[in-house]
Amino acid sequence: MALWGGRFSQESSALFKLFNDSLPVDFRLIEQDIVGSIAWASAITQVGILTEQECSELHQALNELLGETIDNPQLIIASGAEDIHSFVEQSLIAKVGDLGKKLHTGRSRNDQVATDLKLWCKKEGNQLLGLLTKLRAALIDLAERELDAVMPGYTHLQRAQPVVFGHWCLAYVEMFERDISRLQDALKRADTCPLGTGALAGTAYPMDRVKLAQSLGFAAPTLNSLDTVSDRDHVIELCSDASISMMHLSRMAEDLIFFNSGEAGFIDLDDQVTSGSSLMPQKKNPDALELIRGKTGRVYGSLMGILTTMKALPLAYNKDMQEDKEGLFDVMDSWSICLEMAALVLTGLTVNRDKTLSAAKQGYANSTELADYLVAKGMPFREAHHVVGEAVVSAIAKQTPLEDLSLEELQAFSPVIGADVYECLTIESCLAKREALGGTSLPQVKSALAVKQQG
Ligand code: ARG
């Protein structure tokens, strides 16, 4: 039976019930709904609605219900209740009779669902923080294992300048650290308690909302009832933080898919995170990485979904907002599993150092060094850039790297070039020069890694 039957003389149509019920989605809020109800029972006891005895009876029944349902979602869904709040109230009445009917005094499903959802966001957000931290640790371990493997760095997917593999790993550490701080920030804003704001205008009972908020582990109560029941910023923020983080995961996946390609052959992926082809026996496909890249799309979709749902909604609660949960749950599930999967991929990843080194030596990745060499000999950089461009064209025509051109051949482009040029064209020299903070010289990368390992 619905919670609101008194005003109605006809039953809902079967189609409306199917359309309107949210239990198949919001059953996941069972723990939060019960925990919130336990706190509410105490709050209404303090304003004289329930006796201490009634309150403890309700607490006991609610705890019992939690034990019966927490690992049994099928039991919840099979009840056919309208939503998780109706399910909990109906189950409570079934357990304790008329006393159960007192629990909703002064409360609305509007402040109740807002509370449940914020509690869920806080719990899930904290789990995500743990997974982001684990992924960060996996990247730091990989950086340590493969720190000095030399590989080409790319711009426009053209070999640009050599870098070390540890530098690539630490680039993603920076990104996931920003994701962690963004999520922490969002969780701070989500840490206000909606309970006790009623349907929209505030509850009619003079309860201590500060105490109520504390009892549920919130930092403070919300301050405006109209805003409280119509606010889903925390859902949007989590979807947005997840989208940015998935963008990082997807870029990392894409880099690794490319590194793993037959053409590059820079890395080997563990058998555990790859799959074969049903037809082509030689294939070992980077499915885990492709799925990380692929799932990014559905996360962005949910962000667009909730932003669009909330756009232009008048104050205060509207049923449109029931659409908030399906996308959020999917976002947090997708984000979690992608973080875990990415960490597993990194754990079993090895670098083929001969391949990365020989690729770094090709593609004229040391051209900038030759230009800097000419600058050191007194040539203005723009002119040096032009001279080296000509030398590269000629080397390409001869199908040889710059360092294999003879001194005479090089001097044809500029007489200032001397025998010391070869020294500066080596990979070691290219790397060693990038010693300013944030560069890819080995000492820089080692000290960056040491900082990350400390915290
Ligand atoms: N199932 C609803 C939701 O998720 C709960 C709130 C219902 N409130 C209402 N006034 N109909 O949004």
TrEMBL record:
Location, primary (coarse class): cytoplasm
Catalysed transformations (reactions): L-glutamate + acetyl-CoA = N-acetyl-L-glutamate + CoA + H(+); 2-(N(omega)-L-arginino)succinate = fumarate + L-arginine
GO cellular component: cytosol
UniProt-annotated location(s): Cytoplasm
Residue ranges constituting the Fumarate lyase N-terminal domain according to the UniProt record: 6-301
InterPro entries listed in its UniProt record: Arg_succ_lyase_C, Argininosuccinate_lyase, Fumarase/histidase_N, Fumarate_lyase_CS, Fumarate_lyase_fam, Fumarate_lyase_N, L-Aspartase-like
GO biological process, one term: L-arginine biosynthetic process via ornithine
EC code: 4.3.2.1
Keywords annotated in UniProt: Amino-acid biosynthesis, Arginine biosynthesis, Cytoplasm, Lyase
Pfam families cross-referenced by the UniProt entry: ASL_C2, Lyase_1
Domain Argininosuccinate lyase C-terminal: start-end pairs: 364-432
Keyword Ribosomal protein found: no
The family this protein is said to belong to: Belongs to the lyase 1 family. Argininosuccinate lyase subfamily. In the N-terminal section; belongs to the lyase 1 family. Argininosuccinate lyase subfamily.
HAMAP family linked to this entry: Arg_succ_lyase (MF_00006)
Protein name: Argininosuccinate lyase
Organism: Shewanella pneumatophori
Gene behind the chain: argH
